[in-house]
Amino acid sequence: MTFSNERTLLNQLSMGDEKAFSKLYDLYQPSLHRFVYKFLKSPDLSNDICQEIFMKIWEDRQTIQEVNSFRSYLFTITKNHTFNTLKRAAVEDRVKADVVKSYRVSKNDTEDVLLTKEYQQFLQSVLDTLSPQSRNVFALCRQQGKSYDEAAQLLGISSSAIKKHMVKSMQTIKFAVERDIGIAFSLFIEVLAQSGDFMPIIEL
């Protein structure tokens, strides 16, 4: 669609034209749904968010003419709404369960890889704040799948010391994830577990 055609639809939308609204919905809903789905991995939640976004567009239609780039505006408010949903997932069990369940059955497409890479980089930034020994313990136990006894033998320290390092590291990562990313820690782990960066908790 050309800029002039889109502008015409926006002008019509601002005057309450439902046909113009439907055309904009048909034009942007598929790409919007893909955008939301790459974060939530839940078809139902993604559909809900898309519906809520377009409801907001309709409610704010009288000011839509002030928007210079409708596409940028649309994806910006969608991103914000999606991240707010992820923040809710940290405290609402139903939303969290939907997101985590959907992650388990999702395929690792290009968008998944990009999101996982972002989480990997964030994890590394948090690990860099830990002591060298804590980083070594974490790498052995959570990234290489070693038991506490195996890690203790390799590092020449006691199993109880390994556990103390792991508890402190996991608490630090959990706090950083929920504070800086704003998502449930279980979702963060679920994403990285699919890439092999987080081994299942055997001991803690």
UniProtKB/TrEMBL annotation:
Pfam families, per the entry: Sigma70_r2, Sigma70_r4_2
The protein's GO terms of the molecular function aspect are:
DNA binding; sigma factor activity
Q: Which residues form a coiled coil?
A: none
Query: Which InterPro entries does the UniProt entry name for this protein?
Result: RNA_pol_sigma-70-like (IPR039425), RNA_pol_sigma-70_dom (IPR014284), RNA_pol_sigma70_bacteroid (IPR014327), RNA_pol_sigma70_r2 (IPR007627), RNA_pol_sigma70_r4_t2 (IPR013249), RNA_pol_sigma_r2 (IPR013325), RNA_pol_sigma_r3/r4-like (IPR013324), WH-like_DNA-bd_sf (IPR036388)
Domain RNA polymerase sigma-70 region residues, every copy: 24-89
Keywords tagged on the record: Sigma factor, Transcription, Transcription regulation
Tell me the protein's name.
RNA polymerase sigma-70 factor
